[in-house]
Fold this protein.
Amino acid sequence: MGQPKTNNKTVNPALAAAERKYQRGKPVPFKKVRSGKLRGKLERQEEKIRDAVQSAARAELLLGEEAGFLEAEGIEKTYNYRQDQLSKEVDINTSQKIFSLDLPDHGPYSVDYTRNGRHLLIGGKTGHLAAFDWQTGKLHFEVHVNELVRDVKWLHNETLFAAAQKRYVYIYDNSGLEIHRLKSHMDVTKLEFLPYHYLLATVGNAGYLKYQDISTGQLVTELRTKLGSCATMVQNPWNAIIHLGHANGTVSLWSPNMSTPLVKMQCHRGNVQALAVDPTGRYMSTAGLDGQLKVWDIRKYEVLQEYYTPRPATSLSISQRGLLGVGWSTHVSVWKDAFLTKQTSPYMNHIQPSSAIRDIQFVPYEDVLGFGHAKGVSSIVVPGAGEPNFDSLAANPYQTKKQRQESEVHSLLDKLQPDMIALDPTHVGRMTRMTKQDIMKARKDEKEQDETARYEKLRKKTKKHLKRHENVIEARKIEISEQFEQEKQKRLAAKQKPKEFTALDIFN
Amino acid sequence: MKVKALSRSSNDYVRERSQDLHKVQRNLNPTIHPFEQGREYVRALNTVKLERMFAKPFVGALNGHIDGVYSMAKHPTRLASMISGSGDGEIRVWDISDQRTTWSANAHNGIVQGVCAGATDTSRFLSCSQDKTVKIWDTNSGSDPIHTYVGKYAFMSLSHHRKDPLFATAGNSVDVWDESRSEPIHEFEWGADSYQSVKFNQVETNILASTGTDRTIVLYDLRTSQPISKVVMAMRTNAIAWNPIEAFTFAAANEDHNTYLFDMRNMESAHNVFKDHVSAVMDVDFAPTGQEIVTGSYDRTLRLYNINQGHSRDVYHTKRMQRIFSVQFSMDSKFVLSGSDDGNIRLWKANASEKLGVKDWRERHHLAYAASLKERFKHMDEIRKIDRHRPLPGDVRRADRMKKTILSSEKRKDENRRKHSKKYAEEKRIPERKKAIIGVAK
């Protein structure tokens, strides 16, 4: 306390830029607070936060890996750089990541990578399911379900996955064993898994968005989109909101807490073919049947850039470092820095000869782009795509079995509830603007509503029960009706007074 | 073309031998760790639920006394040692860790009203009783007192000086005795009929405080042999405890169900008011850290407070524990002792959900993290409800509800009077910390 106050502002601009990444929100203006105790408390809190931000920025020095890059020299263009040229100039480890699986019999393939980027799941349209560790080549399982498979998705880790088959959604083990049949999810076209909420979101031809909690097995909610059949779905990893692309060119944003979409945006003049959201939750790219590829700012719901693809794009993906991958016809194009500035040419290009691209995905924490096409599955190297430094406690590509089990338990303990999903994930713990009277009134209204709802439900139930059992002849009913009859007779008899004997009665 | 692709070598990330620790990489970038606030909230919720699940504060009961336990004193230097005096005149010295009596004696003919430890470097202790005697004992020399002092009237309380062979008793007047003299060297009296309790300050060793039936607390200084000041309150104070860290602060357990924290230098206003009991507070004791107090009340409950908060952080009660007359905080600040009417001394944990024993550093870090998370989210409805939930005996709950109704209606009426009458509106509001204080005299 006796030390003189030093000016704690960071002088180095690189460090200052790093610090801005760790600053969560603006500092509290504590100098205006009148109460001395509160002012002191806030001042100490702000000091602690400043120290934490500075230490975090300085700790970046300890990060081991650096991101990849591809730089053109002279008159060379990066988009002319082919994968075979690249594999000659990089190390063996990286050139082994360029592979192609020829599977021409089983139709266009959907692909999915686990969150740590280690395991690859492929699903062929005619029912070929397989999963393997693509870095070591170890096959987990290979199975034919002999049925249409529209989409496949890993669940929380490489032990479980979901496949959207012809009629229902099935959950399998990593040995290919079918574990569950989700019969409430029908005709599903797209699957999404929200890892921090343990929710499986499905959307299908009926236009219903259904959320299933896979840790408790409960169907959380079914939402009628009322916008027809939907085949395009993506989640916003920053706030767990589901983005759906519809046939009339609108993109709607959904949370399980509201039966109507939170936001509806008119994006294209035709069908929305593909969607992708970047990991910071700031940019969304949409591709439509009109050939347009638009980049939107999700926080302000404004269009930032408009590009076009020669053929309508079938799939989009955004990497951890902000590279945009577009799959159209037999091509895969990767655009760099495409959000804030308008780029005139892509970063990299790849052609898969005579095979239409079905599904593309950037591999987390790797400079690799995996995609499924009509004749199999391929993987190409895109330098600078993946986040170089992973956090073992978040997603660890070098996870052992025990670490996997423990992280599963920890993530289940930290599981978020579906009613926490909102457009702003930082709202938890914030001060509410409602006054105490408003809060009490809201609580009272809620309680009253609950009571009337309960009463209505009970009333309906009894009415239904009575209606059903109207014509049922039960022994007890007969007893009671007999009893009634007897009592009625008795009453009538009691009412009837004994007749007085008159002279006319001699003739009875 | 300059190209470099991300290529990790597994020996940087995988351990070499199975005896090695696993390698952990950390990247604090918030993009990799989404939903920070939500996850912390869920962790805080789990913490608070686990705390309530593990809240089992009762450790054990020391039984042996036949009559109720009316006075207790902990040993100033030995952790596991404690003396208690009961209503039939018996004194027992206990080993708290073994929960058994190490020494006992039928000390007096009446209720043992006060026990205290002797000067710090001796193994002696003293007891005073309603049979007008004060006796000095030593556990090593059998069950006969070393010295007996006979007074003129029944003694109500006893306190020994920190180092010098002096002790003070309270009865008709506050007397200061020298151990070598059989008559008191000072007799203080300032207006009261009789004095309930007396306490020496263990830090400023010449200061002495006493409470009297005239609802006063009087402070004396031995160096000037004069009373310093006195504060008159609305109701009588039952007990006093000096803060072992801040020498000028003391807590006063009052009959009006509150405990007041006073600064000796300025007694016009209390420093803090500890509310929550529904009957007279009988005894109060400070934790050795000076940050917490324990109070025992006539309503059969024991409450623990934080010094800078006005409401209890925890409440302990049992069907078998009757009126509590004495409480002690153990010298490692982890346990609390209560002596009650039913003759048992109960040992409780100061933090109800704390795991006892040595904890691994990993566990300690996790507990510290969990505590700070709970602190951050404690204002939120769900968490506050679970954290505040304590099962209480039915009559305590009823009395509390009645008290709240009465106080809130009085407050409402006062506010209405202020709103609708100019005369009342001009009257200044009295702060809660001054409400019970009538005056200070020097």
User: Anything to note?
Assistant: The two ends of chain A are 123 Å apart (CA to CA). Chain A has a mean pLDDT of 92. Residues 121 and 210 of chain A are 23 Å apart (CA to CA). Residues 436-468 of chain A form the longest helix (33 residues).
